[in-house]
Amino acid sequence: MHLAIDLLKDQGILGFITTNYWVTATYADKLREDLRERTNLLSFYNFNELKFLALPRVSII
Length: 61
Hints:
Number of helices: 3
Order of helices and strands: HHH
Strand content: under 5%
Number of strands: 0
Mean pLDDT: 84
Helix content: 25-40%
Largest sheet: none
């Protein structure tokens, strides 16, 4: 996430689908602080323990 924020252009929009590790883990303090200081959160969805269907992983370059 840090690198994505570094590469984001001014007024750019960035989206992530990820585990909720960074929201709840003690060891993610620096990441949460970085997000708070360098971004403007537009929306946040927490699906808690919802299990998604196994989807293929696709890399987009």
